[in-house]
Known about the structure:
six-stranded mixed beta sheet; alpha+beta; single chain; Aminopeptidase
Amino acid sequence: MMTLLINIAEKPSDADYEAIFKPLHAYNVHSAGDPCIRPVALLLTDELSNHVGGLWGQCAYDWLFIELLAVPAEHRGRGYGTALMAQAEDIARSGGCIGIWLDTYEFQASGFYEKLGFEIFGTLGDHPVGQKRFFLRKRF
């Protein structure tokens, strides 16, 4: 068997990511079946057709993971976040998902998600130091 070395990628590339993803994905497919990964992107667009925020995630293994949700500060409190989450939930449900999960920081919006029916299922303290990171889920 060949000996492996550990190298630090100073400027990680897409190819570096794929080198790590490919064997992990193969193992996961072998162990748990095809995750049927489907990206989800909902874009907030201004009147000049500029993309200024939105929601980014992926459906995999019967759950939608929301990686990013961003509404520009000047547009917060006007229902855009709620509308994005509702649309994402519709996509997840219609795609056969059984729930949505995400993470957020204490200084961000855990209360917003809880109002939408999410529950905290995990907390990471001191991330960043003195604050918390919350992991939330909403099962349909």
